[in-house]
Automatic annotation (TrEMBL):
It comes from Pseudoclavibacter caeni. The chain crosses the membrane at residues 32-50, 56-77. This is PH domain-containing protein. InterPro entries: YdbS-like_PH. It comes from the Bacteria. Residues 79-146 form the YdbS-like PH domain. Keywords: Membrane, Transmembrane, Transmembrane helix. The keyword Transmembrane helix applies.
Length: 186
């Protein structure tokens, strides 16, 4: 589903002249793994040890469950409020609830897009996408289908700047409009 939306964004679908609807992407929820594991462990410990130590044991279990639920709620809220929006004009990253931040890079100003993926990110099909526009770099954390997103962003940047379509994995478009290849350093 996500790959289909990204492909449509990059103009790789059948309808070439159709207006591009904004695509909203959330990072992969990998950050929720440990809080969920802690909640599961706490849920397993409570019935096992509820009557074992009297009042002191119960208060420790209640504190553990409370901490696990609070950690899960904070992690989920951070994940839920991180949204990357790509439309026909810009790439925008919005974060936060109490301290909102918004970073945007116009598509016409994009000079390069780099993907960074670790072993587990390759396994889950995610990665960090760095969007460069001059001296500014916007990091899109844990994005799904990062190489497809890289290709779509470079295609959108070429389309917005009126350059020929030169997008591909590892491609960097220089100030003069020429395409060079960039290696990940791994």
């Amino acid at each position: 589903m996500c790959a289909r939306r990204i492909a449509r964004l990059g103009g790789m679908d059948d309808v070439e002249d159709a207006p591009r609807a904004p695509v909203r992407l959330r990072p992969r929820a990998a950050r929720l793994f440990w809080p969920v594991a802690l909640v599961w462990a706490a849920a397993w410990l409570v019935p096992q040890h509820w009557n074992a130590d009297g009042g002191a044991g119960r208060s420790a279990l209640v504190a553990l469950v409370g901490f696990a639920v609070l950690l899960l709620a904070v992690s989920w809220l951070r994940w839920w409020t991180t949204v990357c929006t790509v439309d026909a004009w810009a790439v925008t990253l919005r974060r936060g609830v109490l301290r909102r931040s918004e970073q945007a890079v116009p598509l016409a100003a994009i000079t390069g897009v780099t993907v960074h993926r670790g072993v587990l990110q390759r396994f889950w099909g995610s990665g960090h996408v760095d969007v460069r526009a001059g001296a500014t770099t916007l990091r899109l954390p844990r994005m799904p289908a990062p190489t497809l997103l890289q290709t779509a962003l470079l295609a959108g940047a070429a389309r917005a700047a009126g350059r020929p379509l030169l997008a591909g994995p590892g491609a960097v478009v220089t100030e003069s409009g020429e395409r060079t290849e960039e290696r990940n350093g791994r």
